[in-house]
Amino acid sequence: MSAPNKSYDPVEVEALKPEEIDRVRNEALAAIAAADSLDALREVKVAHAGDRSPLALANREIGALPPHAKADAGKRVGQARGAVSKALAARQRELEAERDERVLVEEAVDVTLPHDRVPAGARHPLTTLSERIEDIFVAMGYEVAEGPEVEAEWFNFDALNLGPDHPARSTHDTFFVEGAKGGSADADLVLRTHTSPVQIRSMLDREPPIYVVCPGRVYRTDELDATHTPVFSQVELLAVDEGLTMADLKGTLDHMVQSLFGEGMRTRLRPDYFPFTEPSAEMDMVCFRCRGESVGNPDRPCRTCSSEGWIELGGCGMVNPRVLVACGIDPARYSGFAFGFGIERMLMFRHNVEDIRDMIEGDVRFTRPFGMEI
Ligand code: DAH
User: Fold this and answer.
1) pLDDT in tens, 284-343
2) pTM of the full predicted structure?
3) Is residue 43 over pLDDT 50?
4) Going by CA atoms, what residue is nearest to atom 10 of ligand 1?
5) Could you tell me which residues are beta bridge partners of residue 176?
6) Domain-wise residue ranges, the chain
7) Which of 191, 159, 155 lies closest to 176 in space, CA to CA?
8) How far, in Å, CA of 319 to CA of 324, rounded?
9) Of the chain's two ends, which shows fewer C-beta atoms within 10 Å, N or C?
């Protein structure tokens, strides 16, 4: 093993000359101060404090010095390296703080800005109105009942006391389903012209007392125009129990219009004819907009009721005993009341919709203002 070289003088080793150490230290400090990003600082660190940096190389030279020179050179190099690593850490903190501040500004989210939310759509107001009506009756203990839209003629007409030769049968402009005739007349199918056949189905399926509300789509061969559509919606109501009278019907109707249109709403019944109810009536409600105040008052005309004070809702009556019998219910023991009305019409006067086509065209600009009712 060779002995340390006694004649080896640190001043003679270029890298360990005090001026040289000062120079590389100053160079490192200048580079650190000039680093303007964390990436740049990382490169500066490799160049001036890494394994192959001038100070690291100088440090390695110390081992070869004679013992008396080691301490001095070691101190000088050590101080220089310490100063560089301190400066690196300080600059690192500075640049990190700058970055954090910049990120806070650049990535700030203004939660008050208008946003491009994908529209969630809206439920159709016919659906929500129909469900609201169902809810009124469900709250009174009624059941929701449904029936098929392609219906046997027997349910749509015959069982409702509308026999094949009944004149009222022709007032329903019926869509007949082609090829449905299966030999027996009962097998004829139609697109149901009203929701009343669900009354029959409900009575055949259940024992009295029966309380059902039947919403659904119905069809008639009407041309589509501002006030007619061949496909529309009805809600039907049927109650069969012991001792039901027209007073129960009237009270039920009043409760419905008050729930839908507000306190103080009333209904009135006008004599009418339907084969499946006896007696039958046309039901009107007080105009919920003018509350009758437009009647005889030319200064305050009302477009909703044409200043008549009443709005026609639909048909109603006491279930015809012949219908009860057709469904196997004893009319001597039970009586019933029923009513049915169109939802499109109600939506029109309730919300000032002037053209029924708006309800069926599926344009979200029509449905959106009704909101996203659940
Ligand atoms: N089904 C009838 C129609 O569509 C409306 C109707 C009238 C229903 C009287 C009833 C009723 O339940 O009792 O024209």
Assistant:
1) 999 988 989 999 999 999 988 999 999 999 999 999 999 999 999 999 999 999 999 999
2) 0.69
3) yes
4) 339
5) 190
6) 10-106, 125-370
7) 191
8) 7
9) N
359 φ, ψ to 5°?
-80, -20
* 339 touches ligand 1 (CB under 6 Å): yes
Instruction: Judge if the beta carbon of residue 345 lies within 6 A of ligand 1.
Output: no
Distances (CA, A) of 1 to 4, 5, 50, 70: 9, 12, 31, 19
Evaluate whether 159 touches 151 at the Cβ level (below 8 Å).
no
Is residue 249 within 8 Å of 337, Cβ to Cβ?
A: yes
Summarize the confidence of residues 154-166 as an average pLDDT: 91
CATH number corresponding to 125-370: 3.30.930.10
Quote the ligand 1 centre to 366 CA distance (angstroms): 29
Nearest alpha carbon, ligand 1 atom 8: 340
Ligand 1 atom nearest the C-alpha of 237 is: 12
What integer is the mean pLDDT of 363-371? 84
Q: Is the CB of 208 under 6 A from ligand 1?
A: no
- Pick the atom of ligand 1 nearest to 340's CA: 8
